[in-house]
Amino acid sequence: MTRLSSATSVGYPSQMPAKRISWRRLAALLPNSIGLSLKPVTPHLRDLHLVQRRLQEDFLGCEALWTIFVAAAWSYRYRTRLRPLPSHWNTIDLVFNTLADAPRLEVLQQQLMHCDYQACSPNVVRLLTDILVDQADRVSLSSLRPCEFEELYAHLGMSPPKRSPTQIFEVRTGKGNEKGEAYARLRQENKESVRLGFYGCKLEKVYSLLNSQDFLDNGKYLELTCDINEALARSKPQAGVGGSRCGSILRCVALVEFVFQDNETSRDRKQVIIKYANTMQVSYLLMYGQSCKEYAMERQIKLMAEPARELLIWLERYHEKAISLGVGLLIVSSMAHFGSTFFRLFARTGFHVFKRGLL
Fold first, then answer.
1. In angstroms, rounded to a whole number, what is the distance separating the alpha carbons of residues 267 and 269?
2. Using one digit for the tens of pLDDT, what is the confidence trace for 300-322?
3. How far apart, in Å, are the Cα atoms of 143 and each of 55, 65, 169, 176, 286?
4. Which InterPro entries does the UniProt entry name for this protein (predicted)?
5. Alpha carbon distance 351, 323 (integer Å)
6. I need a surface site. Which of 136, 285, 326, 344 has the fewest CB within 10 A?
7. Beta bridge partners of residue 142, listed in sequence order
8. Which segments of the chain does DSSP mark as H helices, in order?
């Protein structure tokens, strides 16, 4: 409450007591040009400030971290990909609905710069805080500039890849990361056995690879290769977040540091089998981003250069299915008239597939 000072004028004696006027009444009496703002206090304002600070420190690193999380959440294998599930989230349906309402990080950054704290719902703010702040305290991504790529290759003693990545991120572990602390102790005790390997995978696998401590349970293992180009060939493209600076179509190669302790190797000794999560740690993450148009052009060039290559690869990988397909084609073709040109070609194709499957 505010007491207005008494004013003396003709017809108004100075002995009249001043009236008490509330702030709301005063704001209603004042002109619009000098009106008082009575906006409600924004919930989660502190969380928004923390998110804004992370975006200002390394926007590209935050975008990569968010893209990795979204890819794991939208995967039909989210039960194994989204591990651990962020705190404050009990069901995957709630995560889906919140992701649908979340704006692009670039738009969010512009809104926060203009002090627009009302654009995001409380659930969106909570999810952004869990991924970009809380989990980033345990595992975060720090982006490297393109001019630093060659320095990194020289520092690691590796030859540059045939295809240069669009982004490289250094994986940093915080103090509360038990997995990182366990590996640091093991590395300190076995400095002479530290090796580097490459792991090419889909984008949806990276989240559990960085955050989960039990992603190698139940007989699972990682197969690392010493050739980064081979690892890139094993990485299948996957759609990222629309409008992301990382790219619309993404491939990932993880540079893994591990302690070699009687690990199994392949017959040609080019791959190393990792069965225990505490013996390895992802040091760098190489991302290969493309636009949808660039990806379509690349696919078209490959098909024109080697039109039957993908069919032959499928036959080699899935020879049992190829045999079944060939037998099915032969049975269907035998039901038709022998002189039909179409079914004669059908039978010839079925016999060829059947033969390739047997070989």
1. 5
2. 887 777 666 666 665 565 555 66
3. 12, 11, 4, 22, 10
4. ARTD_PARP (IPR051838), PARP16_N (IPR041400)
5. 9
6. 344
7. 170
8. 23-29, 45-57, 59-74, 78-81, 92-101, 105-113, 122-129, 149-156, 178-189, 206-211, 228-234, 292-305, 309-317, 319-334, 341-358
